[in-house]
Design a protein that fits this description.
The structure is a homodimer of 136-residue chains. By secondary structure, chain A is α+β, with helices and mostly antiparallel strands. Chain A contains three helices and eight strands. In chain A, strands 2-3-4-1-5-8-7-6 form an eight-stranded mixed sheet. Chain A is globular. Chains A and B meet through strand 1, helix 1 and strand 5 of A and strand 1, helix 1 and strand 5 of B.
């Protein structure tokens, strides 16, 4: 099972402008910026209680975020849930008939292992699973 | 400021089918179903840590959810944040240049006063503010 809603990912065109907009909206400033080379995105994070808001700007025209914005415009891109054992959850979801977008977890933002469920198998929602990497 | 991400609203075509799908996905069953006549929706709720998942099925062809699905298909519809004083937050957001979809809070699902921010002024995201009604 999923432990909690870890963050909501929002696709934005310009991270600097969006950081200012979301600071006015949420009433708090972003607390970090991180580039995720593997996903071709630059991200920023806001804390809103237990869950975070993650803004995502494409750092390359081939980024999934650039393609998303081209097709649908700015807005909510994915929802991420924390899990205790990402490989076990990937196996559980596959056996339940969900289509996984990766066969192995990969390194995501915020020091986490992540994987994605295809929105076609999850009611039109791009679902991310994430597991915090605990330093040894 | 917003206190926490209270729930994520997801538009679905058929609530019974979606309840089964999301129970398989999240690994928990929905814990309640509620009809909100004012919004022409039937909703169900799942607990995922501090935040909830709210599924929304249109109970009338004129429901905002029916129109959303017609235009964009099933998927994430809005994100809701808990606030301590909804009227004060509405005033704060208006003064920050956000366009509110209602001038007065209205009664929403889950025993809350709610209002919405227009997605055009909030980076393409339909944002709900909600304040729990404490029985006297």
């Amino acid at each position: 099972m999923f432990l909690n809603l870890e963050h909501l990912g929002i696709a934005v065109k310009n991270l600097d402008e969006a950081n200012a907009l979301y600071a006015r909206l949420l009433g708090v400033e972003h607390y970090k910026i991180e580039e995720v080379a593997s996903e071709k995105v630059k991200t920023s994070f806001f804390k809103t209680g237990e869950a975070k808001i993650e803004l995502l700007e494409a750092s390359d025209p081939e980024s999934p975020i650039a393609k998303f914005i081209e097709k649908k415009g700015e807005g909510i891109h994915h929802v991420a849930f924390e899990v205790a054992d990402i490989r076990a959850e990937m196996q559980r979801l596959s056996s339940e008939g969900f289509q996984m977008l990766n066969t192995e977890p990969k390194l995501g933002a915020d020091n986490k292992l992540v994987c994605f469920v295809h929105p076609k198998s999850a009611g039109g929602v791009l679902v991310e699973l994430c597991q915090s990497i605990i330093p040894e």
